[in-house]
Amino acid sequence: MRQKYEIAIPRGTKFLREIIGFQLPNGILDKELTGCGATTLALTDKYPTIIASPRKTLVLNKARQFPVPQSLAVLSGVYKQDVRNYLDECAQEGVVPKIITTYDSLSKIASCLTDEERNSFRLVVDEFHNILNDSTFKALTEMTVLDECRKYNYVTYLSATPMLEKYIGSIEHFKDVDYYQLKWNEDDILEFRLYDNPTQNPLGAICEIIKSYKQDGYVDFEGVRSYEAVIFLNSVKNIINVIHTCNLTPEECNIVISNSKDNKSLLDAFGIDKTYNYTIGEIPLNGENNKMFTFCTSTAYQGCDFHSNSAMTYIVSDSNIPNTVVDIFTELPQIIGRQRDDENPFRNKAVFYYRTSAFHASEEVMRSDLVELDKITKEVIESINSIPSISLRDNMAKNYCSGMSLNIEQGAFVYYDEVVHKMKLNFMARNGFVWRCDVKSMYKDRDRVRQLLVKLHKVSVENYSDTVEVIGTLQKYSSTVFTDAMRKYCDMQDKIITTDSSIVRSVLANQINESTKSSSIWNRCKAYYDLLGEERIRALSYQESKLKIEARKISNQHLIQGQIDAHYSDGQKIEKSRIKMQLQSIYDSLGLKIRAKATDIENYGFECAECMMTINGKRVHGYELKRKEEPQ
User: Helix %, strand %, coil % for the chain, to 5?
Assistant: First the structure.
């Protein structure tokens, strides 16, 4: 049974290495703060240690700070003999071996060690909450990671933002793993200031910020100048779009993204079009030069050390683009803690641009989807495991689980255990699905986001002020008829968009959002503007009767799209009859009098290719779904 302990940190402590005799515990360690040196302690203490990180970028960032023989980074291109040579050299030189690798490569490390060596090593699973987050797209891999952890006697699961108790409690592996929480003196905790900026165009807001930096060479925050911007946006395509829109050269921007073949191809193609050579960059070490703009995907959200004396952090979370959505409880605190230098006046500040979605699925719908998926999971497990012939059972299971990373979208939380020839519950896939639904629900509306932000420890959420003129304008027109109010609202929004100062625009936009809460007319104007945009409203002559009809059409479209995105995925193979049945269920649940056809799915972001499938031993007609590429 898991026990919980608190470890009191002495007053005045900044880094854990300052505490005499402190060692990372055997269990889950909630260090509470980013930047307190827990990973550095693992790399410098007296114990042979393997540090497993969720991202290659984090491995490389730490390995550059602790080069051989202080540590060995084991990634692709490093072989078993390289590891053996390193261990032998450490033994000869009296150096404590420290191996840094990714979660996925833990099995590779284990194969390099003797049983005696493995028993002498401690394992640190850095940023371990990613085991849950990554289960949304590679659940089977994360289950394998947990299995690898069982091979070691001493394991520290490390994070400043551990997964919530409801997730830990549902993972059997953590049932008997003790939980340690560091308790810091409140005076020693750096308080962060998060500038709250809801917007219907996050990328446009980022482009305006970049424009300000390029125009003046800096952005002024409360009388202090920032000369560098670090922008966290988890979409390579959107990063490229921003670079293109702002006409940034390779000399102006550092692009810190996963070093994958696909990403290299995207940058190469973009560079050819722009006659520039854009490359995947690294996070500069302390003392190295920074470029004015650094773009980071989730590969650098956590654990990496950024050094600058004037860099401001900008974070983008767009509820309309699922992979860019930032988890407020685990990812957001990690991002705002990346800047490490005390002399940077913006070390504890970040600007948060996010878009909410009025068309997110309700908690009731999400729970209903989970119940349905649990039912399908049970049926799949029972159906396949009931096949008497092992060879036929193997074939059926492999056919169903082809491309195991798609198990959630295939409609069941399952994996096939080839040792015992049984289909089993993939509990990490289920947890990943629940987590993804929870993150989506965070962005229901601005009030919901603010409620969650204020729960973050030592994070103050602020808006820009100095808005008396705007408030007066809103009050002046709040009593007018709707058409006049709608026209005036659009005019004011246009002024906000076209102003030269991105900071002023943020001030005005935030206060308009606040003020509409006290005026029913302005509240309706805001809702129509956020949904339809100025051009469509103008085309409908600002008349509310026409706007209502248009809004109803879009609402239905979004609700259907949301349900379809939850059920189907790129590369999925599914029977035509099942598509038709599921679409009809979606239409009926929304009260739409529409007769479903399997081909309807082509209206919601998918292309369909005919294919044959084997279901319960029978060959049936199906579609292989391919998600249509978003326009650039």
Answer: 45, 20, 35
**Are the beta carbons of 488 and 175 closer than 8 angstroms?**
no
Four-CA torsion 285, 287, 291, 293, nearest 10 degrees: 60
| The three-state (H, E, C) secondary structure of 376-429, written as one string | HHHHHHHHHHCCCCHHHHHHHHHHHCCCHHHCCCCCCCEEEECCCCEEEECHHH
d(CA 526, CA 489): 8
Maximum CA extent, the chain: 85
pLDDT tens for residues 503-535?
A: 656 666 666 665 555 556 777 787 788 878 888
Angstrom CA distances, 487 to 478, 514, 523, stand at 12, 19, 14
Query: Which residues face 8 on adjacent strands?
Result: 183
Burial of 94 (0-12, 13-18, 19+ CB in 10 A): exposed
Residue whose C-alpha is closest to residue 486's, from 549, 551, 542: 542
Tokens standing for residue 4: 């919980």
d(CA 597, CA 579): 8
The distance from CA 317 to its chain's CA centroid, rounded to whole angstroms, is 9
* Eight-class DSSP state of 306: B
Tokens of 413: 């939380």
- Taking the C-alpha atoms of residue 559 and residue 499, their distance in angstroms, rounded to an integer, is 34
d(CA 26, CA 203): 43
Note the pTM of the prediction, 2 decimals: 0.68
Of the candidates 31, 55, 298, the one whose C-alpha atom is nearest the C-alpha of residue 160 is 31
**Cα–Cα distance, 197 to 512 (Å, whole number):** 12
Spatial CB neighbours of 574, under 8 Å, sequence gap ≥ 6: 410, 411, 568, 613, 622, 623, 625
183-188 long-range contacts (CB < 8 A, ≥24 apart) are: 183/6, 183/7, 183/8, 183/9, 183/32, 184/9, 184/13, 184/32, 184/33, 185/9, 185/10, 185/11, 185/12, 185/13, 187/11, 188/9, 188/11, 188/12, 188/13, 188/14
Beta partners for residue 34, in sequence order: none
Instruction: Write the pLDDT tens digit of every residue in 85-131.
Output: 999 999 999 999 999 999 999 999 999 999 999 999 999 999 998 88
d(CA 221, CA 519): 31
Which among 106, 198, 95 is positioned nearest to 150, based on CA atoms? 106
Q: How many CB atoms lie within 10 A of CB 507?
A: 20
Which CA distances in Å does 400 have to 208, 383, 409, 571, 574?
48, 12, 12, 13, 10
Cα 7 from chain centroid (whole Å): 30
